[in-house]
């Protein structure tokens, strides 16, 4: 998985645990694909400040996943769901489970 895709997934799961400032800078960098220099100019701060904040935020997100393993658990559930799709007797249960996966917020 590419780094940007991985960090965007981490942001989906754990972005709300970052400070508002970290969320904003990560949104520019990972979601909107701004360069560090573009973000620095937009925010009136140094490029190195943006870089430090983005890298620190990424490390925090990775720490949350190492600790909580929400993405790992979601991937395991998806594997089970794909197996259930092949079993006609499990179809009704599968639909209920998939609906519960949609409950909750997201990073945006």
Can you give keywords for this protein?
elongated; 75% helix; single chain; 108 residues
Query: Over the alpha carbons, how many angstroms does the gyration radius reach?
Result: 17 Å
Strand percent estimate: under 5%
Integer count of domains: 1
Q: Assign the structural class, choosing from mainly alpha, mainly beta, alpha/beta, alpha+beta, or little secondary structure.
A: mainly alpha
In the CATH classification, which architecture applies? Orthogonal Bundle
Mean pLDDT: 90
What is the first-to-last residue Cα distance?
21 Å
How many extended strands?
A: 0
Oligomer: single chain
The string of secondary-structure elements, in order, is HHHHHH
Work out the helicity level. over 70%
Task: Give a brief rundown of this model.
With 108 residues, the protein is an all-alpha fold. The chain has 6 helices and no strands.
What does this structure look like?
- This protein is an all-alpha fold and 108 residues long.
- It has a single domain, classed as Winged helix-like DNA-binding domain superfamily/Winged helix DNA-binding domain (Arc Repressor Mutant, subunit A).
- It has six helices and no strands.
- The protein has helices spanning 3-14, 20-31, 36-43, 47-68, 70-85, 91-101.
- Helix 2 crosses helix 4 (47-68).
- 15% of the residues are buried.
């Amino acid at each position: 998985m590419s780094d940007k895709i991985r960090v965007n997934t981490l942001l989906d799961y754990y972005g709300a645990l970052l400070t508002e400032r970290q969320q904003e800078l990560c949104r520019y960098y990972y979601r909107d694909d701004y360069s560090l220099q573009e973000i620095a100019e937009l925010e009136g701060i140094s490029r190195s400040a943006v870089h430090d904040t983005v890298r620190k935020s990424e490390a925090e997100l990775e720490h949350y996943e190492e600790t909580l393993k929400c993405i790992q658990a979601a991937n395991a559930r998806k594997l089970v769901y794909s197996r259930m799709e092949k079993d006609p007797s499990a179809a009704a249960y599968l639909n209920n489970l998939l609906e519960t996966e949609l409950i909750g917020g997201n990073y945006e």
